[in-house]
Amino acid sequence: MDSLPSSLNSSKRLKEEFVSNLTGSSILEVAAVLTNVSILILLRHSVSSDRLIKDVSLKKSDDENLSSKDWRAYITTLAADFLVIVLPTILFLTVLSDWTYIWTISLMTLLFFICAAKGSCSHSPPFEPGVHSLKSVLSSYRFSVMIGTCLCIMAVDFRIFPRKYAKTETYGTSLMDLGVGSFVLVNSLVSRQARSVSSMSWKTAFQSTSPLIILGLVRLVSTASVDYQVHVSEYGVHWNFFFTLAAVSILTSIINVPPSYSGILGSLVLVGYQICLIYGLNLYLLSNERGTNIISQNKEGIFSIFGYWGMYLLGVQLGNYLFFGNHSSAMLRSNSWARVWIPMLLFWTTVLLDRYVEGVSRRMCNLPYVTMVLALNLQVLSVLTLSDYIPGSKTSILEQAFNRNLLGSFLLANVLTGLVNLSVDTLSASSVAALFILVLYASVLTIVVGIADFCCIRLKFW
Fold it and tell me: Where are the transmembrane segments (predicted)?
């Protein structure tokens, strides 16, 4: 079979170099970006109402009463969600990225005044946090992770997207470094183990993991068949995101521990792995030399499994303690404070580990990276918890749509990203063209996910 034209291979090489050898930004700036997205979600909640959300949701699920009026109401609400949450996020990640801290302060001020104005006009009793509230916060959190990931995987190939937000090569912190770690943590916080649900049988465990393995193989074959750009130092030659999730799921199924002890096991795994890194494993993983065997070819992806597994185990215990443990009023108030001081503790732990043990490295998924992912994700949860004290709705139509099709929305985002990269020279696109493509991409993603939700279509393999 003839090789691809040199122009295509040259374009692939340039795109790979464009996302290589990057050092990231500061953990504080990443925290500010995440805070901005979280506040946008809260702002949307503050200008909406639970009654409107419930009315639209009930009508779209009632086939007998379904009408064009209901459809228009759903699309109008979905469009409002897009304009308040998604569009500003695109701008924050591109043309407004140099003013991140200013926007953080501005959004916090705007939210304060909206809440003060609505609070003074409201005669309803103060909202009491409860189990339903916790589920809403977790839904908003999962949505924020997914929409941020979907926007970044497309934007990173354009020059309008700051390189400081792209994945780091060896050590450092960046927005996109949070991607796979956040997915692992999202799954752990709401996992069967965190909810103290009985463990799965081997058959069920295999059924839940096999789709991830299949998706990993499909991605491997498809990227190779079209000569799609692949950043080899991220996972390795053949490894990818789906294989990592599958491996963590398999390990969790094999070694099943109660949630009250999973944090201890996770800590032991992470400390043991970090000791191995310090005593020479890090040099092997960061080396550009690769052998011919499968482990050497995919060393980053394979060895980082230990870090992600340890992170998952910690997430199980945190999820059980913060969200699925004792739901008495006293415990809920105590856990609300815990959602504030735990991220702060993890933040300073990351700073100390980064300075005195080893730098943060997503590539190896070392201990400082794990504490950073935990700190920043729990910070997002802490900000979203403010929804309990803000008059308005506790969710949005867009959040519901994404949460009901998390896997489907992520797969669609990957397909759209691939199509754009194969049909557009992203590196040569002007800022205006890049911004137009990003908005169009986000619009298509929102509309398709929204229509799927409206029609009660859910992509679920297990």
Answer: 20-43, 73-95, 101-121, 141-161, 237-257, 264-285, 305-324, 336-357, 369-390, 402-420, 432-457
